[in-house]
Amino acid sequence: MREQIRAVIEQHARLSVPIEAVDDHTDLFQAGMTSHASVSLMLALEEAFGVEFPEAMIRKATFQSVAAIEQALLELGGVPA
Amino acid sequence: MSIAPTTTPAAADEDLAPLASARWFGPTGRPLFGWVHHPADGLASGGVVLCPPLAREWVNAHYCYRVLAEQLAAAGLLAVRFDYDGTGDSAGSDHDPDRTEAWLASIEAAVALVRQAGCRSVSLVGMRIGALLAAVAAARMGGVSAVVLWDPCPSTRSFLREQAALARLAGVTDHPEQAAGELPGMVLGPKSAADLEALAVPPPVTPPDRVLLLTRPGRRPQLDLAQALGAEVTHGAADGQERLLEVDLAERQVPDRTVAEVVSWLRADAAGRSPVTVPGTDQARIALGATELSERTVRIGPAGLFGIVTEPPAPAVSTTVLMLNSGNNSHVGPSRLWVELSRRWAAMGVRCVRLDQSGLGDSPTRPGQAPQVIRAPENFDDVADARRALATDPHDVVLVGLCSGAYQALEAALDQPARAVYAINPVLHFTPPELATGPMDPRRRICWPVGSVVSAYRLLAAQPLRRRLSKLTWKLAHRLHRRRSPIGWLGELQRAGTKVLIMCGSDEARSFGLETYGSLVGQAGRSVQVEVVEGLDHALVPARQRVAVAQRLTDHLVQLLGTLPAPSAATPGP
After folding, report:
1. B322 found inside a domain
2. For residues A48 and A80, is the Cβ–Cβ distance under 8 A?
3. Which CATH number characterizes residue A53's domain?
4. Cβ within 8 Å, pair A35-B174
C-alpha cells in the first residue's frame, strides 16, 4: 500500500523534493505540498483506493505524511483500485 | 488631479471610445456589477457573456477573464464579464437564500444586457462551476448561439467537496471552527448547497448552434454535460488550468493558448458587424437592511486607476476609508471583505473606497509597468493619487490593507499622515520587484529586503536551540537598520497623529519582534496597537476569522471617529 501511496504522492503532491527524499514520516507540507496540491492528492487517493474521505478526516494531519495517509486509508478500508 | 466616472453619462450610449466600461445592470433594487468590453469602432459581430467560476476559483480566474474579454473585444465581439448576485461587487451576499437560482438569474440578466447593447447573437462561456451554470442557463433560455464549457466540474457535488476541502486545508493550521458549507471566500447555507448539488441541465428550449468542450489533459471529458445541450460538440484541450487555478494567487498564469482558442472558436462564424452601445449605469443603489447606499465607479489620477466609492445616505464624518489590494486580489478584498466592510461602514455614515492599484484587479498599468506585480514601486504613486483625488483632505483618511496592502498602507501613512492605518498581516520582509533591475526604491521605509541581515535573523529564529542567539541578532539588526525598525517608524506614526491597528498571526508578528523581543512595539505608545491573534490565517480564509477581524476594525473605527449611527438591526455583518 505504501508504494502505491508514494506513487500517488509523486504524481499529485507537487513536492519540491524528489520522492526518493521522502520517508514514511516526512512532513509533506514541509516538503513543498501546497493546500491546492493537497486537495489534488486527496482526490487522487480517493480514486486510487476507492474511498471517500469524510469531512471529519479532511484536515492537514490526514495528509501530513505517507504513514498518516496509510493510517487514514486503512481506517476507511481502502484497497488499491 | 482628475476624477471621473469610468464612462461619462454622455459617453455611455453614444461614444464607444473606451474599450471597457464598468456597469451596473439587472434588477434596480438588487443591481449586478460587470464590465462591458467592446470593439473600439463600436461595431460588434456578436456578444459573449463570461460566466465566472465561484469561491477560490473565482479569485484565480478573475484576471484571466479580463484578458479573455479584452481579446474578444479586439476580435470584434462585445464581451460582458460580471459578478453573480451576492458575489464580487454585485448586491447581496452569500448568506442570502436561493443562491443557485440567483446565479442563474444573473446570467439571464447579463444576456439581456448584451441584447440591449444591440447584439443579435449571444454566446456563453463558463469555466468550472460557471460552465455548469452556463449550460443550465443556455438550456432554460434558448436562443443562445454557442456555449463554451471550459474545464467543467465533473459535478456540482465534486465542486462543493473540492472547495470545502481547500478551505479546510488552506493556511498554516487546521481550522476546526470551519462552518458547514464553508468554501474559500464564501459560505453556502444548507439549502443553497443542496440546490446547487441537485442542479441539472433541463431539456433545452432551443439548443445552441454549437458547443465547445475544453477538457484538461488527462481528465475525462464531461460528455454528458455537453451532449445535454443537444448541439454539435467540438472538443479542445483546457491547457494550463493547474497553473491558473491550483496555485497561490501570486503564481497564477493566464492560459494564453486556451484563451486564444476560445476567441478563435467564437469568432469563427460570427455574423456581420453592427453598431452596439453600452447599456447599464455607472452608479447603483444598494440596499443594506433598511439603509440604501449608493455606489459609483471612478477613474483616478493620470493612470486612470479603477475604484468603487460607497457613499452613505448622509455622511456622518468627513473621513474617507481607502482599501487597498491584498496581494493579487482585486479591489473586492480578501474573500470579498472590502465589499462587505465598505457597505457596513457606509451604512454607519462613512464614505469608503476600494481601490485597484496599478496593474492589479481592474486598473491599467502605468507606462512601462508589468501587470499583476504586487508591491510594485508604482503603488506609492497610486495611493498618493487616490488620497488626493478622493478625500477632501488627504490626511483625513483611514488606510486599510492586508498582506501587501497592509505594507503599502503603512508606507503611505509614513509618507503622509493619516487618521489611522488598519494593517492586517502586513508582510515587511520581501524582495521588492525593482531589485531585479536596479536599486530599491528610496521611498520604501519599512521593507526589510530578504537577503539582508533579516534573513539571518529569520534563519536563526527557526532554530529553537539558537533562540538566545537569534534575540541578539534581532537586536543587532535593529541597531544596524534603525530607520527600518518598527520602534522607529511606529513612533514616527504616533508623533504624526496617525492611529495604528495591526492585527497579525504569529508568523507576521516576527516582523515586530514580538516573538523574541517581548514588548518591542509597546515602546511606540498607546496609539499604536499590535495585536497577535493566535492561528490567524494569512488571507483570512476562515469565515469566522473574517467576522472577528471585521468586528475589531469596526470597533476601532467607531472609537476613532466618535459617535456613528448604529447600522439598522437588519444590516448583516460580514
Report:
1. yes
2. yes
3. 1.10.1200.10
4. no
Amino acid at residue number B177 = E
Tell me the CATH number at B94. Answer: 3.40.50.1820
- Among candidate residues B270, B292, B321, the one where a domain is terminated: B270
User: pLDDT (tens digit, 9 = 90+) per residue, B374-415?
Assistant: 999 999 999 999 999 997 899 999 999 999 999 999 999 999
Beta strands in B226-282 (DSSP E): 232-237, 274-275
Please list, in sequence order, all residues whose beta carbon lies within 8 angstroms of the beta carbon of residue B498, skipping any fewer than 6 positions away: B413, B417, B418, B419, B420, B421, B527
Residue B444 lies in a domain: no
Q: How far is A3 from chain B (nearest CA, A)?
A: 22
- Cell numbers placing B482: 534603525
- The grid coordinates listed for B443 are 521611498
Q: Give chain A positions within 8 Å (CB) of B165.
A: 39, 42, 53, 58
Place of cell 507537487: A14
* B358 CB-contact burial (10 Å; exposed 0-12 / middle 13-18 / buried 19+): buried
Give the distance, in angstroms, between the CA of residue B386 and the centroid of all CA atoms in the same chain: 18
Q: Is residue A80 part of a domain?
A: no
Decide: B215 and B235 in contact? Cβ < 8 Å. yes
Side-chain half-sphere of A55: how many Cα atoms within 13 Å?
14
Confidence tier at B11 by pLDDT (50, 70, 90)? very low
Query: Of B236, B270, B304, which residue is a domain's last?
Result: B270
Tell me, yes or no, whether A81 lies in a domain.
no
Residue B574 in domain: no
The grid coordinates of residue B191 equal 439549502
ipTM reported for the complex surpasses 0.95: no
C-alpha grid cell for residue A54? 469524510
Q: Does residue B460 lie within any of the structural domains?
A: no
Please indicate whether, in this complex, the C-beta atoms of A36 and B173 are within 8 angstroms of each other.
Answer: no
HSE on the CB side for B394, CA within 13 Å? Answer: 14
Q: Which cell is B107 given? A: 446570467
Which residues from chain B sit within 8 angstroms of residue A59, using beta carbons? 168-169, 174, 176
B65 three-state secondary structure: helix
How do B43-44 and B274-275 pair as beta strands?
A: antiparallel
The boundaries of the domain holding residue B54 are: 40-155+188-270
Orientation of helix A35-49 relative to helix B156-169, angle to 10°? 130
